[in-house]
TrEMBL record:
GO terms for molecular function: sucrose-phosphate synthase activity. It holds the Pfam family Glycos_transf_1. It is an enzyme of class 2 (transferase). Its EC number is 2.4.1.14. Homodimer or homotetramer. It comes from Rhynchospora pubera. NCBIfam families: sucrsPsyn_pln. This is Sucrose-phosphate synthase. Pathway: Glycan biosynthesis; sucrose biosynthesis; sucrose from D-fructose 6-phosphate and UDP-alpha-D-glucose: step 1/2. Residues 484-658 form the Glycosyl transferase family domain. Residues 795-993 form the Sucrose phosphatase-like domain. Residues 179-445 form the Sucrose synthase first GT-B domain.
Length: 1058
């Protein structure tokens, strides 16, 4: 192997043939061909070097790039060529893999388009009323709600149109006392000295949520704002992130806008969940989401009571809205919204489907590899659930609605228009719902910004002679030490070293444009670093490539790249760029919004920004710069040169930005935000709870027990199938209420002498239990289930005898099936405190007044109708039922040359909040994710579940589940979630994962009773390990289901005694 000419030829062939695919592929190929031709003409073209440096490093092929560096450093020609040969095979495999991924994605996208069109047709067919031509015009106008409410036809941002309107709004709502909950889980959040850029999780979203909380806390009508995040007490982060509470001080305390009171203001509340002494990235937080939800639920309930004492006349003050930020917080907010029956709002910030599409376009990783690294499918499902539960989706730009949210099953621009038009006309949508998309750009606080038109020369002269003027900020000195001539206009870029931020293209544009180099300096603020080798691999490789480009173009003295800066230095950096009559640039490939563009404009800097994403809308409002194609190096250099060389254009852009920047202020953002929030239909827990419900001593009062029975008796349903009696129902119900009340009153003297409650007051005793054991075993036969229940009773015999432990049965069975099982095993309904039935759509309590039952068919159970009021949100009702029946009719298989249905409606097991179906052949029916997708495409919001053996299908309200029912018991009866122990099998129904997470304890029973799950459960969107922390101290695995095994598990949780 005398040389490597064949290697160059091989790589050159790849360059010539491997075209197409990816974003802006044609433009990229033109650029490659142009560069290739130029280098060929100069006689120094190296295909190997060109391919590796221009293609491989551009896609962050870290290992391959390192191989190239090692190969280039080899002195031995033989060893170098061996390494290059290895690289060729790897490059060939990479190219082949990219083609395969592109082909698979084209097929998938084609299938998705067909599914969406089919869903639209079916939804439109159900909504059979046609719109007239005039009404179609109205529908286009009504699209403001669906496609960015508040954005005018002229493309302007959502805003209150004048200062007078803002003042009028403030006066109108100043007497309100709203409680708002914001959630942002990942990253490092604190009110001062934010470590932005420390890692990929601590970026612009962190600053946004903190400033939003601070601004809302100062807005008239808002009494308290809680920003819930994760408490982190890790050695590698500052101690302040372990503080449970931090009050956000107002930037301008003399404006008099904020509410005053003991608990008023804005606070960061840190909830402990996940590993206590470890800071972990957002991709690894998913197994601990339910633990956060339980902790957040406890805080909100307690704070609502506190606020009730302060401003609510003794009644709890529930949040007016729960606002999630990003997918993980959206998932949490959806569960909290369902548990509390409070409206939910979501801001996505960046979206999983959009990221997945971008990664697939690069062709470096398959869908499975992407999911393994980023847990992207779990993130996407969280965003889909957020669409199901949210009433409003707040976006920064219209582009986010049309090009990003429109990728989701749960949102469709066309269907959203039709639904909004029907709502506007007061016409039924047949159980279909779509969240409102509202465009509200992020805000900024401008009061602390000072604009100084003085030239920088005076400051620099003052720096030379300290007696002439005060010393400039330290960060100025740190930046200017890089420059040979610091008085030249400064081109400023502020972004972390990430390939999608496109800093390399900016450096090339600057380095290869001689007129621009001669006229300006370039400053790159790329986060903070001590040692490049200690950075994440992606950031380290990218930063290294930036530094190599600086060296390649010999830009020393022209480019500044300081290693450190504080958050408080950022305004000074903007001021320095403005004083030099410089320009701010954001060259990212795609920018969801571009908050740095707002900040720079507020300091008087013209902007050059990517034409992809939010900067388009910002430029429409501010008109203070130039939009460019981020892939076009020449366009970037031309725009920068034009702004720094044309002083009149620079001054005009500066003035336009300063004149219009108020439209991005925090006060205006908050007024627009609240004007949307207060239009939501108020929702909160609907029952009346006594003030003493949280006081154990008062709970022992028999009068309180009597009152609880009277309250709950209004919600009784005493029929076999759980439905209300239709014959003489009113008179019969009144008789039952009277008998229950009389029974409770007659027992009041006995109860006052005995701390153990009598059988006639079973409902309030749920609050007095020290522990609750929840039996939720789906993988056992009915006979084995009875045996396990008896073993659990025996293992907790002493605790059961003194009534310190209560029992809840949680199952997919109906209440009549539960009653049958209890009778077959010789068990009593009064052995349990509650029954969670039909997969969490019904909640019953035992009633041992069996002698008072009105007919032999009636069962000794009371149905909690308050629970139904909690879960009925967005329940599709009859419209959903008809769609499901139509779907089931299409699910057939051939038998003896005949088509037979494999999914049939089960009328006997169905109820008002559960549509039940029989599945005769589970291998041929679609898995949960496919059926859920089909319903979402048609704007039907529901929770789809298969039983463990795959023979039953339940469709229930979207925010109903067995785990949510446990949270309801906490809110309704004060049963602490941390005092619950949930028994499950080795597998379960398709809601199994929800029973394993949270602050409650979980016992996984092993043994031969566990039947294998249906093949339906194998078609998961993500592995169970991605969402369940099996190494959690709250999860114990028992080797068997015998009495001793169960007793041992309970002893580990401190429940059972020897």
């Amino acid at each position: 192997m005398a040389g490597n000419d064949w290697v160059n030829s091989y790589l050159e062939a790849i360059l010539d043939v491997g075209k197409g695919g990816g974003i802006d592929a044609r433009e990229k190929e033109k650029e490659k061909e142009k560069a290739s031709l130029l280098l060929r003409e100069r006689g120094r073209f190296s295909p190997a070097r060109y391919f590796v440096e221009e293609v491989i490093s551009g896609f962050d092929e870290t290992d391959l790039y390192k191989t190239w560096l090692r190969a280039a450093a080899m002195r031995s020609p033989q060893e170098r060529n061996t390494r290059l040969e290895n690289m060729c095979w790897r490059i060939w495999n990479l190219a082949r893999k990219k083609k395969e991924i592109e082909g698979d994605e084209l097929l998938r996208l084609s299938k998705r388009r067909m599914e969406i069109e089919k869903g639209r047709r079916e939804a439109t067919a159900d909504m059979s009323e046609d719109l007239s031509e005039g009404e179609k015009g109205e529908a286009a106008g009504a699209d403001l709600s669906a496609l960015g409410e508040g954005s005018s036809r002229a493309g302007r941002m959502a805003r209150i149109s004048s200062i007078d309107a803002i003042d009028a709004w403030a006066n109108q709502h100043k007497d309100k006392k709203l409680y708002i909950v914001l959630i942002s889980i990942h990253g490092l959040i604190r009110g001062e000295n934010m470590e932005l850029g420390r890692d990929s999780d601590t970026g612009g979203q962190i600053k946004y949520v903190v400033e939003l909380a601070r601004a809302l806390g100062a807005t008239p009508g808002v009494y308290r704002v809680d920003l819930l995040t994760r408490q982190i007490s890790a050695p590698d982060v500052d101690w302040s992130y372990g503080e449970p509470t931090e009050m956000l001080t107002q930037r301008d305390s003399d404006d008099g806008m904020g509410e005053t009171g003991e608990s008023a203001g804005a606070y960061i509340i840190r909830i402990p969940f996940g590993p206590r002494n470890k800071y972990i990235p957002k991709e690894r937080l998913w197994p601990y989401i339910q633990e956060f939800v339980d902790g957040a639920l406890n805080h909100i309930v307690q704070m609502s009571r506190v606020l009730g004492e302060q401003i609510g006349d003794g009644e709890p003050v529930w949040p007016v809205v729960i606002h999630g930020h990003y997918a993980d917080a959206g998932d949490s907010a959806a569960l909290l919204s369902g548990a509390l029956n409070v409206p939910m709002v979501l801001t996505g910030h960046s979206l999983g489907r959009d990221k997945l599409e971008q990664l697939l376009r690069q062709g470096r990783q398959s869908r499975e590899e992407i999911n393994s690294m980023y847990k992207i499918m779990r993130r996407i499902e969280a965003e889909e659930l957020s669409l199901d539960a949210s009433e409003i989706i707040i976006t920064s730009t219209k582009q986010e609605v049309e090009e990003q949210w429109n990728l989701y099953d749960g949102f469709d621009v066309v269907l959203a228009k039709k639904l909004r038009a029907r709502i506007k006309r007061g016409v039924s949508c047949f159980g279909r719902y779509m969240p409102r998309m509202v465009v509200i750009p992020p805000g900024m606080e401008f009061k602390h910004i000072t604009i100084n038109d003085a030239d920088i020369d005076g400051e620099l002269d003052g720096h030379d002679d300290s007696s002439a003027s005060p010393n400039p900020p330290a960060i100025w000195t740190e930046i200017m030490r890089f420059f040979t001539n610091p008085r030249k206009p400064m081109i400023l870029a502020l972004a972390r070293p990430d390939p999608k931020k496109n800093i390399t293209t900016l450096v090339k544009a600057f380095g290869e444009c001689r007129p621009l180099r001669e006229l300006a300096n370039l400053t790159l603020i790329m986060g903070n670093r001590d040692d490049i080798d200690e950075m994440s691999t992606t950031n380290a490789v990218y930063l290294t490539s930036v530094l190599k480009l600086i060296d390649k173009h010999d830009l020393y003295g022209l480019v500044a790249y300081p290693k450190h800066h504080k958050q408080s230095d950022v305004p000074d950096i903007y001021r320095l760029a403005a004083k030099t009559k410089g320009v701010f640039i954001n060259p990212a490939f795609i920018e969801p919004f571009g908050l740095t563009l707002i900040e720079a404009s507020a300091h008087g800097l013209p902007i050059v920004a990517t034409k992809n994403g939010g900067p388009v809308d910002i430029h429409k409002v501010l008109d203070n710069g130039i939009l460019v194609d981020p892939h076009d190096q020449n366009a970037i250099s031309d725009a920068l040169y034009k702004l720094v060389s044309d002083k009149q254009l620079w001054a005009r852009c500066r003035q336009n930005g300063l004149k219009n920047i108020h439209r991005f202020s925090w006060p205006e953002h908050c007024k627009n935000y609240l004007s949307k929030v207060i239009t939501l239909k108020p929702r909160h827990p609907m029952w009346k709870k006594t003030e003493d419900s949280a006081n154990d001593s008062d709970l022992d009062s028999p009068n309180d027990s009597l009152k609880d029975i009277k309250d709950i008796s209004l919600n009784l349903k005493l029929s076999l199938d759980g439905d209300e009696n239709t014959n003489n129902g009113r008179s019969k119900l009144e008789n039952v209420i009277k008998k229950l009340s009389d029974a409770a009153a007659s027992n009041s003297n006995i109860e006052s002498q005995n701390t153990n409650m009598g059988s006639n007051s079973k409902l309030p005793i749920l609050r007095r239990r020290k522990h609750i054991i929840v039996i939720a075993i789906d993988s056992a036969s009915k006979e084995d289930l009875v045996e396990i229940i008896q073993n659990i009773f025996e293992a907790s015999h002493l605790e059961r005898q003194n009534q310190s432990v209560g029992f809840v049965l949680s199952t997919s069975l109906t209440i009549s099936e539960v009653h049958s099982i209890l009778m077959s095993g010789g068990l009593l309904s009064t052995d349990f405190d509650a029954f969670i039935c039909t997969s969490g759509s019904d909640l019953y309590y035992p009633d041992n007044n069996a002698d008072d039952m009105l007919s032999p068919q009636e069962l000794p159970f009371a149905l909690d109708l308050d629970y139904h009021s909690q879960i009925e949100y967005r329940w599709g009702g009859e419209g959903l039922r008809k769609t499901l029946i139509r779907w089931s009719a299409l699910e057939t298989e051939k038998k003896d040359d005949k088509e037979e249905q494999v999914v049939v409606i089960d009328e006997d097991r169905s109820s008002s909040y559960c549509f039940a179906f029989k599945v005769t052949n589970s291998p041929v029916v679609p898995p949960v994710k496919e059926l859920r997708k089909s319903m979402r495409i048609q704007a039907l919001r529901c929770h789809v579940l298969y039983s463990h053996d795959g023979t039953k299908l339940h469709v229930i309200p979207v925010l109903a589940s067995r785990s949510q029912a446990l949270r309801y018991l906490y809110i309704r009866w004060g049963v602490e979630l941390s005092k619950m122990v949930v028994f499950v099998g080795e597998s379960g129904d398709s809601d199994y994962e929800g029973l394993l997470g949270g602050v409650h304890k979980t016992v996984i029973l092993k043994g031969p009773f566990n039947k294998p799950p249906s093949s339906l459960h194998q078609a998961r969107s993500y592995p169970l390990q991605d969402v369940v922390a099996f190494d959690s101290p709250n999860i114990v695995q028992s080797d068997g289901c015998g009495t001793n095994d169960i007793k041992s598990a309970l002893q580990k949780f401190g429940i059972s005694k020897d």
